[in-house]
Amino acid sequence: MIDYFALALGHGLMAIALLRLVMKPGLDEDPLIAAIKDETQENRKATSTAGRNAARRDRDDGGDNPVS
Amino acid sequence: MMDLVLLAFIGYILVLGLRRPFLWVLLYVYIDILAPQRIGFSVITSLPVSLIAFAAAFGGWLALDRKEGARFTFRQGLMAMLLLYCWWTTGHADFPLEAATKWDWVWKALLFAIFLPLTLTTRARIEGLALLLVLSVATIVIGTGLKTILGGGGYENLKFFVNDNSGIYESSTLATVAIGLVPLIWWLVRHGTIFRPHWLVTGFAIALTFACFLVPVGTEARTGLLCIAALAGLMLRYTKRRLLFIAGAGALGLAALPFLPQSYYQRMATIAAPDGDESASTRVAVWEWTIGYASKNPFGGGFDAYRSNRFEYTMPVKKTDGNTTSVEYREVVDEARAFHSSIFEMLGEQGWPGLIMWFALHIIGLVQMEILQRRWRNAEDEAERWIAPLAAALQMGAVIYLIGATFQGIAYQPVILMLVGLQTALHTYCRRIDSARGLLDRSTARRQAIGTKLRGAVAA
Description:
Structural class of chain B: mainly alpha
Shape of chain A: rod-shaped
Number of helices of chain A: 3
Order of helices and strands of chain B: HHHHHHHHHHHHHHEEHHH
Strand order of the largest sheet of chain B: 1-2
Oligomer: heterodimer
Radius of gyration of chain B: 25 Å
Largest sheet of chain B: 2 strands, antiparallel
Largest interface: A-B, 35 and 54 residues
Strand content of chain B: 5-15%
Number of helices of chain B: 17
Distance between the termini of chain B: 85 Å
Distance between the termini of chain A: 63 Å
Structural class of chain A: mainly alpha
Largest sheet of chain A: none
Shape of chain B: globular
Helix content of chain A: over 70%
Radius of gyration of chain A: 24 Å
């Protein structure tokens, strides 16, 4: 009886935990590291010649050509 | 019925893994710890569930995972070296048949421990593994705790789901692992994101911790008592009011005394007086034998090398007849006594090179966890403040294991190797954050420098 109770409780909790884990957005890509990398990428884009040119074109066009 | 439920659970994880293949790694962890194929009676016993889970975990990672941030670290290299070395000693073993039997599960445990950190590349995955480890062990611990309270305990009396003294279903091993996981339970309570901080989570953790403390009581494993003492000592470091903690722990210990069975006192008394107990006195004899054996075989005798030992010694045997107790000294002959210590297990089986590799593996882990604690202890942000406490919990777990391992041959215990994997993954993860931050700082500085230059040019 005790064994059944312990098995049911343990497996029940594991089932819920795994379901929540599957739904978790940061499971395959870490949000913190991704955010740092994105910021670095943005800085690089801004400092590269192509990036600066794109930003200048954007200013000259009056904002019609958004930098992507 | 039981088989169907267990199979349904395995099927459930397999299906969930179709969306996130990482779950197959957790499936293997669950099967390796709880051994559902040995809990069941019919269908499940004939299915190679462990093999299926390993194939799914490895195949899923190889074919479907992003593998971003997967690094092969020095500690994984050490385990790989140990694995190769064990393979070599198995080929030259004193007892080839027995050695092959042990090799059969050791290589799997080591290989999985080498593989595991490669999959643990995000915070959610690290937490997922920690939670599954705790819940798998909790399933056994809850049953053990309840049986102890309801009076089913006793040395070699307490029944687990599986009663063949294998893996974690051995009383001293379970006691060590259960106590070693207590800091991890409380880390999950405070920093969990799968089960967020909630009174229900705290309530469950209190009950589970109590059950963990009951394992050494219920199984009357002496090593467990040492592990509890070690945990209390380690907790002192993280307690602000130390005197209050010592007084509280003392009071709690005293309050527990009347509830302990008489047999427990008798068994614990043999810690201080090992002469009267065969299990304890042969331990010392085996250890002395191992040192002698290693001086003749410095490269070890392969798995189960202890089988060649033989001792003769006199042991006092107490006999109570009415009111008189007489002590009689009897000649005892012991053969093929197990090492009863991971240190001597490594020394005897793998010789000095194996022992050095095993020690290096664990000592480097302790040092790395210490460095991580110091480096991240002032982190305030939600995304980072979980790191230092996790490093502390893993370090405490490792110290408790090393203390328990001094008195048991559990050098290749899979749960402990999974904790090693978790430590390695945490260390790699933190290094990745640091390196990404380094790149960010450099790019920010460059952006600012260019910005200043441009403004200067415009002004000129």
